[in-house]
Amino acid sequence: MVRLFSDKWLEGYAFSVHTQYSIYVGENEAGYPQFDTKRTPMGELVYQLKYKQNLSVLPQIIALLKSDAKFVDFIKKDFVILVPATNKTRRFQPVELVADAISREFGIKVIKDMVEAENHTEIKQVEKAKKIDILKSSYSYQEHPEVSKEANIIIFDDIYDSGSTMNVVADLLQQNGYKNLYAFALTHTRISD
């Protein structure tokens, strides 16, 4: 697992990096850049689930997670809080789907609406400082009585890039009294802004 560093959580990991390499190979006939990309096993599964909407890879994602003793130990927390989806047009939300499967397999409760995104604009291409401002203004917190302020909470996302979203979610939870925060993503991109 790859360590995710932030002063917002006690401990954080991504299961693996997303790609082993991605080499620019030129442009296609429409002028779009083309790349020769080799993803890690988890990276390929996340890509298939998120971008190809291939539901059949979900059992393989869970099998990879189960095969890692460090993950099996790490997941022993009280709750998983989801990072809100920015693309609501997908047929299904990969983060919710994987979180539900993790919940069934590892017996951890998932809270899906404790942090909500009011503005569903994708911000991947926005510079980090502006991205954080957009996220702060669009995320809201909703109290869940079953989640005590002392609970051990994992903030979960599928892909960790710059860390902006997870940090803003952690900030929001800290502002509302939660201190035992952890972070987990399925993959970590190699390049972050």
Which properties best describe this structure?
alpha/beta, 10 strands, 32% helix, single chain, globular, 6 helices
Give the SSE order as H and E letters: EEEEHHHEHEEHEEHE
Described by its quaternary structure, the protein is single chain
Distance between the termini: 21 Å
Largest sheet: 6 strands, mixed
Radius of gyration: 17 Å
Briefly note the structural class of the backbone: alpha/beta
Q: What strand line-up does the widest sheet have?
A: 1-2-10-9-5-6
What does this structure look like?
With 193 residues, this protein is α/β, with parallel strands linked by helices. The protein has helices at residues 41-51, 58-66, 69-74, 94-106, 128-138, 164-175; strands at residues 2-3, 11-17, 19-27, 33-39, 79-82, 109-111, 115-117, 139-141, 153-160, 181-188. Helices cover 32% and strands 28% of the residues. It is globular and about 55 Å long.
